[in-house]
UniProtKB/TrEMBL annotation:
Keywords on record: ATP-binding, Folate biosynthesis, Kinase, Nucleotide-binding, Transferase
Domain of life of the organism encoding this protein: Bacteria
Stated name of the protein: 2-amino-4-hydroxy-6-hydroxymethyldihydropteridine pyrophosphokinase
Ribosomal protein is among the record's keywords: no
7,8-dihydro-6-hydroxymethylpterin-pyrophosphokinase domain segment(s): 91-102
Pathway field: Cofactor biosynthesis; tetrahydrofolate biosynthesis; 2-amino-4-hydroxy-6-hydroxymethyl-7,8-dihydropteridine diphosphate from 7,8-dihydroneopterin triphosphate: step 4/4
Top-level class of the enzyme under EC nomenclature: transferase
EC identifiers of the protein: 2.7.6.3
One matching Pfam family: HPPK
Gene Ontology molecular-function annotations: 2-amino-4-hydroxy-6-hydroxymethyldihydropteridine diphosphokinase activity; ATP binding; kinase activity
Gene Ontology BP annotations: folic acid biosynthetic process; tetrahydrofolate biosynthetic process
Its job: Catalyzes the transfer of pyrophosphate from adenosine triphosphate (ATP) to 6-hydroxymethyl-7,8-dihydropterin, an enzymatic step in folate biosynthesis pathway.
Length: 186
């Protein structure tokens, strides 16, 4: 068994309703499929990333124990996105549902060298390129307020296996403007 950290985001209406409803439905579906102890963070309203890329998002995080591998879990997450009507036409475009596997315990995938390559990718290349393989932990989780704030609701003491810091440390290093842009909805 391993503990998964997942971030959810949506800024377009899905077949299940508005973004908040869509995220809650995705969580219900995952609980049903995996029968897990899934715990959901609060929901937050956040600006689109990158700035000006569209309507505000609803973001959340959840964590649970699973006996699935990271690849098996990612497949389940992609299936739920598809069930919600997600299409992958424009990188960082509007989404009915985005489920990102952030971490599986302390797993590094596929290796530290590949992780470092993607972590150091310039923003213009991030906007064009997507990795062909699963990268764990997510190579930019430590930079993004829309992920860090909800994750800190659930796993504030999780240590990044490469950078060696906690989610709380990363969140607290963000600018006040970044933190203020993440507004609780519930």
């Amino acid at each position: 068994m391993g503990r998964a950290l997942v971030c959810a985001g949506a800024n377009a209406t899905s077949i299940w309703g508005d973004p908040s409803r869509t995220i809650k439905k995705a969580v219900e579906m995952l609980k049903t499929r995996l029968g897990s102890d899934l715990v959901l963070s609060r929901l937050y309203q956040t600006p689109a990333f990158p700035a000006g890329a569209g309507q505000d998002f609803v973001n959340a995080a959840f964590t649970f124990e699973t006996d699935l591998s990271a690849h098996e879990l990612l497949s389940e997450l992609h299936q739920i996105e598809s069930d919600a009507g997600r299409t992958r036409e424009v990188r960082w475009g509007a989404r009915t549902l985005d489920l990102d596997l952030i971490a599986m315990d302390q797993e590094i995938a596929p290796d530290a060298e590949t992780w470092t390559k993607w972590e150091n990718l310039p923003l213009d290349e991030q906007m064009r390129l997507a990795p062909e393989q699963l990268i764990l932990p997510h190579p930019r989780v430590h930079e993004r307020s829309f992920a860090l704030v909800p994750l800190c609701d659930l796993a504030p003491d999780w240590h990044h296996p490469i950078l060696g810091k906690t989610l709380t440390t990363f969140r607290d290093a963000l600018s006040p403007e970044d933190l203020q842009s993440v507004k609780p909805l519930n």
